[in-house]
Request: fold
Amino acid sequence: MSLTTSSSDYPAQTANKAVYNFGSGPGMMPPTVLKQAQAEMLDWNGTGISVWEMPFTGQDFQAIADQARQDLRELLNIPDHYRILFMQGGASAQFSLVPLNLLLSNPKTGADPKADYIETGYWSRKAIIEGSRYCQINIAASGRSSDFIEIPSVADWRLNTQASYCHITSNETANGLQYSELPNTGHVPLVVDMTSDFLSRPIDFQGIGLLYAGAQKNIGPAGLCIVIVREDLIREPLSSTPSAFSYQVIEQNNGRFNTPLTYGIYLAGLVLKYFKAQGGLSEIQSLNKKKSNLLYEVIDNNPFYHCAVSPAYRSQMNPCFTLVDAELTDRFVAQAGTRGLINLKGHSAKGGIRASLYNAMPLSGVLALADFMAEFAEGCCS
Ligand code: PMP
Reply:
């Protein structure tokens, strides 16, 4: 099945014009899913109440949560020995919760816990700063010297064999660079912040200890964070960890230690079903490649635009680029907005333009952006 959506799905319509949302997150959601949520808002499945109002301990909500877990497991082909936790606090909370839950002192020497981090841009830096509150951090590799236009080659990483885990950010949302494949860190469990490329492609779980993803890019509403963790890593967290944020407590209570983000889990479940109906992650990945290749081609073939990231590391989710004259950036964003091409402004720390192409962005949106870019460049140069 193709992901080329039907014309009734796209583009989203406001009262008077088509809208393509290139925002980096919260990002564009599939209109079909939004319509389904709207239709079910007041009365879910003949119960006479909204999912919003349902007891989280009741059978109906449990069925919704179990189905979402099951669909996620199928979509990502998650092996049985991994657990899926629906958590709150967004992805940033995991910057602390990963060390709190995974750090181990060396069992032989009792030495303080250690963790490896790979620095590839804005979000990995955030994870490093937060993680360093809990343990001794080894930045095993950093792309800082090249201003984060490349990901350091895995062969050059200086990994610590005593590390409790090695943390990477699979897609740097602000810098627009992405690992084309997840690295192998040997017996040290790999921890991946997949917030901005989760469900954009299939994953090989070999070597993954834990991955986490804030939902607001590809799956659902902000605040929900999906954590997929290998079961042998679920253990007693550091004693200062709040119980509601202990992986062990959440898992032992089947996600019901306290009230979960019920409506967010329901919405994520609708998106997961939609992705399955679209043919799964291989289909989604090929459309994502097509969309980003198209945009990078437009950028590379027009001297008016420039993408600093080396081609091998360019993000399929968040292409970032600049205009030949930075002074024109605001005008570009404003004029694009009048065409319904919205939220194109780059990250505040980086400037320039960022066109986020999450799963729900149809090819027609990228084509509309490409047309606009050609016209804008021509208008400015003539
Ligand atoms: N990691 C990455 C890669 C992100 O892109 C973001 C949000 N843009 C975060 C973490 C933080 O997510 P949250 O706002 O849900 O805490």
